[in-house]
Amino acid sequence: MNQTTFYKEFEVFSKRNDASPFTHQFSLTAPNKELAIVMAQENFMRREPVSDIWVVERVHIRPLSSEEKASLQRLDNKAYRNTKGYGYLKKIWSKYEQQILDEKEIMSWQGGRKGE
User: 87 by DSSP, 3-state: which?
Assistant: First the structure.
């Protein structure tokens, strides 16, 4: 059997703990996915602790086409999501709260004078 048809390329991803994201670790060649998982465990998991491992055949990973990449550009106009322009709101809110407290205080004085 030819080596190019017998071996498949796999990409190995792992995460250190349940809260961490998956990161790409390395590529390997193996005849099937079961052996690829065993090889990934032997080559990687014995070196550092991991909570999970993914072994994905490279043919199943597809990059974006140039048309798909171009469609991402239209999604880039999201300036309305940036919160850096709202820093002044805390100052305005405390000024508003102070006005409310002052109005309540003034209203309570007027109520007390009517009862006199």
Answer: coil
